[in-house]
Automatic annotation (TrEMBL):
This is Netrin receptor DCC-like. It comes from the Eukaryota. The keyword Kinase does not apply. The keyword Ubl conjugation does not apply.
Amino acid sequence: MNKIEVMASIHIFVGASILLVAVCKRSVSSEISSLTIEPRSPICLKKGENIPITIMLHSNLSSVNFTRTFSNLSLLWYRNGIQLPNATIIHYTNNSIVSRFVAKYPGLFTCVLIGPTASQNLANRSVSVGMRPNPVANLVATPKFISDEDTFRYVVVSWLRQSIEYVYRVFFKIDLLGCFSFPCVEDNIEPTCIATKCTARIDTEGHDLSDLAFYIVTRQGACESRSRVWNFNLTLSSCDVLPPKTLFYVPYPPTKLTIETSYRSVILRWQDIVSWSLPSVSLTYTCSKSSYTIKSKKVDIRVIFLSDKHIRGYAPYGKCTFCLSIQEYHCGQFSEKLCKTTRLREEPPSEAPNITCTTDTCPTSYDDQFRNLTVTWELPAEKYWGGVLREIKLRYTAAESNSTWQEIVLTNLSSKSVAIIGLNKTLHYSVYLQACNTEGCSGNSKQLQIYGIRARPLYSIYSSSNYNTVWYSIGGAMGFIIVMVVCIIMIPKLFFKQRTELEPLSETDIPNYDEADDKIVYDHIDDEQCEQLYDEGDPRGDETPPVNGQS
């Protein structure tokens, strides 16, 4: 094969490959019925917000053909032309592919459907993500009059510009009877921004005794935000202040509010922008779910000191919100509030834990000359904590005068027991508990006296339920033994006594019956013998011997 044939074969192969790729690309692209992305542009993020972006590819193919056609495809995400990692196909459904990505930063996000080879860009969709600008919150509205007449000519609205990328627009309505009676015509003007200050002039001539309402729209790119609505009444009051005709003046709110907490006191410091005189201050605070307002006189040093007596609902480590607004003139309007939330200073706990066992009920185990004691306890009520409890301290010492206090620190407050190991059996100990937070510890709990086995006082023995039980057992045993002894002694005596009363006497029952000098035999005699013996007399005396049991 010559050189010309080889070159011709290469061209034919390349051409066939290109045609095949084009056919495949066309065939795959033709099977895509829709490629959608949600949400649609423009997407506006707030500061710290994340928005998920979802792209869905739909096809009219059956499930089997869909998997065969699109199994080798992939979806890639790009932000401003840079590929993003960890953004792949989430899952396949019957006839669709779903891919999601979370947008955290502004930019142009593009999702590209890639074919089997990286060069095949089958389809793509893009969405623009921008940052939502901060709305205008701090402004000053000042009326301007026609010479010395009490007629409003226009109102000047000014505020601080937050970014050079922000574009503002002021929308306002003026109505004599109020915009609730019939629809008001809304107008808008573009302010003038120089450096960091923006100013807009609302023409109010001929609208005395009318209501003015306006708000400001801030735009950055395709995203915008809207401020709250300010409402004013174009009516003069009889307040006689200097400078004149500034009753409509709304001062800037305070800035850079800082709160310092110390022992049972709070110090508030702030900065403000005032034009003419010292401002009056309105302080609203919320503690323990109750709100209170304090209005002070004009202040110069921009500091407010509050003790626990001035703060209703004061509680150590309580959560309080302080809101501050200022007023330049006693008949003017207060500025918007600047609020800040803080926690009050902790204090040492006011109550100690409670030991829930006694000397005899605390679990005890013995080991040679030592014993191990487990002390059980419970926390005081939460209102006595003074903050957040960090640890429980158990301290114990022997009764000897020169012994030192030993300490055990417990950080696991969920466990309501602690073991003291290696106590001497013959000594007695004193034990107490303390609750501690970052500001200190509570007082000592009621001491637990642990007595030694030989050193135990008698009063404690008699007062002990365990020892009473032992004494009861010993007394019961002794009583049983006494009853048994009495029974053993008395039963034979009763038996013999009964026999003596029922059986007649025998010769053996009469003492000295067989002695020669006193032997008298009483046989059965008749009446003549009895009379003869009576006449002759008894040799032992005057006593008449018994006859047949008769005396």
